[in-house]
Amino acid sequence: MDDGFLPLGANRNLGPLIQFPRKHLKLIVVAIIAGLILLTSSYIFEQVDAGEICIIQNPITGTLYIYTTQGIKLQLFGKVTKYRKSMQYWFSSMKDQGALNDESIKIRFNDGGHANVSGSVRVDLPLEEKSLTAVHTKYGSQRAVMHELVRTIIEKSVYMSGPLMSSTESYAARRNELLGYIEDQAQDGVFATTSIETKVKDPLTGSDKTVTVVELIKRPDAPNGISRREASPLKEFNVRVYNLSINAIKYDDVVEKQIAAQQSAIMDVQTAIANAKKAEQQALTVEQTGKASAAQAKWEQEVIKAKAVTQAEQERDVAKLTLEAAKFKKEAAITEGEGEAKKKELIMAADGALTQKLAVYEGVMKTAVTELAKQKWVPEVVMGGCSAQSNGATAFNDMLGLLSYQVLKSINTDIQIGKTKPPEKPK
């Protein structure tokens, strides 16, 4: 830069600084502006998640801008308040559910028993701009909505549900009704009720005692047919509560003892009933077992009978077959005998039974010759020559001829040597 352009009295030694390039100066200015934008971007834009409701209040006019859809929204240094569209509210006594401290709600039943109800409920905020504006204007934050609106209504509903039943009923028989009463009153308003005094039997002492019983007032045009004392504030803001869950009911020690005693008595009664039913069932079982055994024995005898009948029928059939076979054999034997007899008869008729007669003759004559030969036909002492020996031989021959004749005659056979039988005369 020319020194002639320096102001009067200026230090001539600043020349090098004044000569700083202008393009570098522009870059510095741009960087400063970019840094300011980055530092203030969180006040200019706001990121909204899918499960969130974002309400931005204009810092100048105070106008509320409500966003129920996800994405980047223009903030322009406005106040941002976020709500969850749906959340779980815990009034639990457990440290791992909700807050670390016990947030259970106290309840009083119509028999004077007390307990603490522990559980949770689902809460849905409205998405309409009018309802969200009313919620935000009155409560201003999600914590305030949950504790000042939801919890207050749940506490009231729990407290007003207690007089509708006894502590022992809430323990078992009517627990589901208790759950329904709390959720119904929280959503649609507290029930309109009427109180009456009645006498009931004490489960421990067995004596009668007077208790106040609360009954619901029915009205057909009311929500669920039950008249309401007042509408639920949740209706005003279109806030929905549902899926109420009770995870524990902690009764006072006196009530616990009473419930335990009653349960013991109930168990004794149930045990007695069970034993009676068991005995009855055993009797029926014995009866049925006896019937079954009798039926089994009967059918076993029927089986034996059937087997015997079958065996007898088999034996009968075998006997029939054997008899028929014997008859066939008999007939065959008779037929064979008759045939053989007929054969012999024909043979004998043909030759006069000559073969048999000759066999008889031969046998008799052999025996006779043998026996006659043993006899002494000649005397041992002969007097007067050989006439005695000749007489002995003659006697032997005569005897033999006589015997032969006798045999032939007995078998009706006439043997004539050298002669032929004359032919029979024609009749």
From TrEMBL:
This is Band 7 protein. InterPro entries: Band_7. Residues 48-278 form the Band domain. It comes from Candidatus Magnetobacterium bavaricum. The lineage of its organism: Bacteria, Pseudomonadati, Nitrospirota, Thermodesulfovibrionia, Thermodesulfovibrionales.
